[in-house]
Amino acid sequence: MENPAAEWKLPWDGGCRCGKVRLRVTLPPIVTMACHCTGCQRMSSSAFSLTMAVPTPGFHILSGAPVVGGLHGASKHMFCDYCMTWMFTRPEGVDEFVNLRPTMLDNPGWVVPFIETFTNEKLPWATTPATHSYATLPDPSLYEGLMREFADKSPRPR
Ligand SMILES: [Zn+2]
Ligand SMILES: [Zn+2]
């Protein structure tokens, strides 16, 4: 990538349902995912959650102060304190990236889940166009190759 910002049309802005929390992404995503686990079904009020892993130095809160919700556990599920939109997750023990829900972006239409996880818990009718499907999670030995394939093949913003 000669000029990642141009190739990915960065920066991207986004926000919660009510607009109190606004955010900005300034670095290309690492990977995109859909998670069919029952926890994500409940927390997203839908069939699956969507994730875009954004490098932490490229993730900025512009306004508002997201609060911890969900399980209040080691992984921090972050919500708008007013409209309670589930906006992003700071995964347990991971400082390198933030898992943003890509539907927070003002222009999310180009984002396609590259990986889907926990298909063993999925609703029978729920399908996604993900390139790679896993019954639970991919083996950690696969992560590096998956991230390289995503960088090469993921659609770019239109
Ligand atoms: Zn809000
Ligand atoms: Zn999940």
TrEMBL record:
<dbReference type="InterPro" id="IPR006913">
    <property type="entry name" value="CENP-V/GFA"/>
</dbReference>
<keyword id="KW-0862">Zinc</keyword>
<comment type="similarity">
    <text>Belongs to the Gfa family.</text>
</comment>
<feature type="domain" description="CENP-V/GFA">
    <location>
        <begin position="12"/>
        <end position="126"/>
    </location>
</feature>
<protein>
    <submittedName>
        <fullName>GFA family protein</fullName>
    </submittedName>
</protein>
<keyword id="KW-0456">Lyase</keyword>
<dbReference type="InterPro" id="IPR011057">
    <property type="entry name" value="Mss4-like_sf"/>
</dbReference>
<dbReference type="Pfam" id="PF04828">
    <property type="entry name" value="GFA"/>
</dbReference>
<keyword id="KW-0479">Metal-binding</keyword>
